Amino acid sequence: MKTIPITCCALLAAIGAWAAPNAAAAPSADSATAFLQAHDARVRAVVLRAPTDSLSTAEHEQVRALISDAFDFRELSRQSLGQVWEARTETERDEFVQVYRGIIERRNLDMFVSYHRDGGISYTGEEIADDGRAVVLAEVPLKKEKKVIAYSLHRSGSDRQWRIYDLTVDGAGTVAGNRRAWTRFISRHSYEQLLERLRKQLTSLEEAG
Predict the structure, then answer these.
(1) Hey, is 174 helix, strand or coil?
(2) What's the start-to-end Cα distance of the chain, in Å?
(3) CATH number at residue 22
(4) Does the residue 78 lie in any domain?
(5) I want to staple 140 with a disulfide (CB 3.0 to 4.6 A). Which of 6, 12, 104, 147 is the partner?
């Protein structure tokens, strides 16, 4: 089975990197940056609970739930599918979001946990657009290089909490990358075939544990 490329899954670990103590001035309590920092602290508290790299099943589920809470998967799906999303029924949209969300959660969990143990992130700036959406800039030091990340966030859900709907790493965006890949695939095949490929990817990940 050929795997449909999904940009950004490998980048989700970046949202779990703990905020460096000397990272810029403290943001306001309700800012997008403050949301990211608070999220970092919650995940790190779970990850560092175990003295080794091994987490219990319950702790894995806690981390997975925290990943889910930080993202607006519906908006990420909508923007990634572009015009194809507009042609889908609400039932089709709900299924796509569920499958896409499952792939992201399962594919990145171990990397997410590992990054918390090893990495550190510095938030370097925040911009608010006229429509209220925010872009938070950050730098993540890796072993041989430094990654520059732009988080795109908006307030969503009944709690009107900040949530991430796009990530851009060194200029490569999640939404743009997925939209290119998926639009190309759909033009050659169909939306139904794309969804079926993604379903199979999710099933394989679930079976692998």
Answers:
(1) helix
(2) 19
(3) 3.10.450.710
(4) yes
(5) 147
